[in-house]
Amino acid sequence: MTDNPAGDPKGFEPVFCTIVPPHILDQAAQSGDAAIAAAARKSLERDAFERTRRRMTTVIGAPSVAPPSGAAPEKPQRTIYDARHQTGLPGRKVRGEGDEPGMDATVNRAYAGLGATFEVYLEKFARHSIDGEGLPLNATVHYSEDYNNAFWNGEQMVFGDGDGEIFLDFTLPVDVIGHELTHGVTQYTANLTYFGQPGALNESVSDVFGSLIKQYTLGQTATEADWLIGAGLLAPRVTGVALRSMKAPGTAYDDDVLGKDPQPADMDHFVRTGRDNGGVHINSGIPNHAFYILAEALGGYAWERAGQIWYDTLTGGGLKQDCLFADFAKATVKASQARYGAGEEYQSVLKAWEQVGVPTR
To answer: Which residues carry out catalysis?
Structure first.
C-alpha cells in the first residue's frame, strides 16, 4: 500500500502522470539537433518540477474542488485556461461551460475532449465525472514554451503545444485527453501505486479508456479501431505512428532520434528497469495487449463488454493499491463472471491473459 501523507480520509494519493514517457524525452535530449535536444531537456525539467510540486501538494494537502452549486451531475462543468506559454497554473480563463467556440482551435479541442471523456463515463459506465460525484473538469492549454507533454497533476489537465519537431499540439489526439483524465478516475478508485507493475497497470488502464473514448467519438468497433495511443501527435519528421500500440506493442515508432518503441507484448519480454518508476510506461504494453485481445475476441464496440469488465475491476473495490498483473488479471476474471456468468466473456478473459503469459489461477 502507498503512504497517504496528506491524511486524506479516503486514501487518495494524487500522482503526476504524463502521456509522454521519460525514456522518449531522454532519447530526444541526446539528439545532435540542438533545437530538439533543448526542447526535450526543457520538457524533462518542467516534468521534474511539476512532479515535485505534486509531491509537496500531497504532503500539504490540495484544496478541495467541489461541483458548483446547482450543477446537474448529468452535465460536465468544464473550464479551459490559457497559460500563455507561461507555467503558472491554471492561467487565464478563456472558455467556460456552455460558452461558444472561439478562434483558438487548441482551446476548442481541449473543451471537446473533456466533454467526450465525461460523456463516455456517464453514458457507458454511469459515472458522474472523474470522481463519480460531478467533479468539475479543468484544463490549461499553451503551457510553457515548446513543452513536449501533457499531464494530469491530481487536480487538472495541462497541455503543451509541442516543439513542432518531435511532437505537435497535445490536444490533437482525443485519446491523450481521455488517458490523462482516466488517471483521475484511477486516483479516486483503485488508486494504484505509481511504480512497477501496479504503476504499469495504472498506465494501462488510462490507455484502455483513452482508446475507448477515441473509439466512441469515432463510432468504431474493436475491429475498426487502430488501437494506437497518441496517433497524430508525432511530427512529420518522426518515423512512427503513435506513442504506443495496444494491438502490437513495440511497433509504434522506430526513429533515429526517439529510438525504438520498447514495449513488450507478453511476460516473456517483461522489462526490468529502475527508470520511469520501474517501467510504468513500458510494461503497460502487456495488460494493454491483453485488453486488445479480449476486445477483438468479443467484437462489437469495445466499451460494451470488454470495457465494462475493466471498469468493474477498477471500481469494484477488490484491488489493492500495490496489486500485480496476476492480481489484476484474476480480478478481471472475477468481474467478468459476476456480470456475464461463465460464458463467452469469461472464457475470452482467461484466454487473453493466457496469451500474454499472465496467470489467472
So the answer is: 180, 281
